[in-house]
Specification:
alpha+beta, 28% helix
């Protein structure tokens, strides 16, 4: 896929974070689960459980002001996930792949779907809106595109393997350059330390309701 076409079709990116997470994200960057585990010094069996196995509930790691939340993986229970994996990919490999990346929606409707999910719709969230052009210019080499919600197996456990994640240049397009399958997720390897440079809006939201804007600066 051509970068200019990607930006034209998906001019904004969206990330749903925990309520009150924005100040911390602004100062430290947006970190994958793996990056957070490294930062908090989580090792051994606990590291394996959080990185390589299913997380049925949210998990708090770190201490004091450094404490952060690892989001649950309710829609990705191992029994359902195993039925969807192809080409010898194991549930461990899938969890580790997911946990090594930072996720963004390219479509606001997908964001609203997550905000309105049963586990989240009664909670408030900080929603980051990013400028795609700025973000891709800075991070093209670390970006992956995916045609599906890779962390979900409901209502159907759509089949998948690790080739679902493709670099921008490798994402299949039709003759006019439009994607053969719509992009659903944009993912980045490990972390985005300069996230604040690309955020153009932060919204406090509950379900689909926009509660108030949050300041972009201190």
């Amino acid at each position: 896929m051509n970068v200019d076409k990607l930006i034209a079709i998906y001019p904004k990116l969206y990330h749903m974070a925990e309520r009150d997470a924005w100040p911390s994200i602004r100062s430290r960057g947006l970190l994958s689960t793996v990056a957070l585990l490294e930062k908090c010094g989580v090792l051994g069996q606990r590291r394996f459980e959080l990185e390589s196995e299913h997380r049925p509930e949210k998990v708090l790691i770190g201490e004091g002001s450094e404490q952060v939340v690892l989001r649950d993986q309710k829609p990705m229970a191992p029994v359902r996930l195993a039925t969807a994996l192809l080409n010898g990919v194991t549930t461990r490999q899938w969890y580790e792949a997911i946990n090594s990346k930072v996720f963004f929606w390219v479509d606001e409707l997908r964001l609203h779907g997550l905000l309105n999910a049963r586990s989240y719709k009664k909670l408030e969230h900080d929603v980051l809106v990013l400028d795609t052009a700025s973000f891709v210019a800075a991070h093209e080499a670390e970006i992956w595109l995916c045609h599906m919600n890779s962390g979900n197996t409901f209502p159907f456990a759509h089949v998948r393997d690790l080739t679902a994640f493709k670099r921008i240049a490798d994402y299949p397009v039709a003759s006019r350059g439009d994607p053969v399958k719509k992009v659903v997720e944009l993912l980045v390897d490990h972390h985005v330390l300069d996230i604040a440079d690309h955020v153009i809006e932060v919204r406090r939201m509950q379900s689909k309701e926009f509660l108030r804007p949050l300041s972009l600066k201190e």
